[in-house]
Known about the structure:
Blueprint: H1 17-26, H2 59-72, H3 76-94
Helix pairs in contact: 2-3
Pfam families: CopG_antitoxin
InterPro entries: CopG_antitoxin
Protein name: CopG family transcriptional regulator
Amino acid sequence: MPKLKKQTHKIPTFEREDQARKFWATHDSTEFVDWRQAGRVKLPHLRPTTRTISIRLPESMIERLKVLANKRDVPYQSLLKMFVADKVEEALRSAR
């Protein structure tokens, strides 16, 4: 059975942002856009979602990491993230 295309209205043009805001506050976008035809898009320049985790590391390793980070003038947590990211990518490449 063929999909029927939903009849939609034409989106009006607005001269000012406040007009558009008022319009969309009182109208449903499904009257103007057939969202069934929408596709997924990737937004590559957005920051990735992060999650806080807790890991236990030997104090001596943390101290050595801080020394390395100090030499590179970066926070030690950032350096640790860089090291982990590099190793993850390396492992994924070698697993192919």
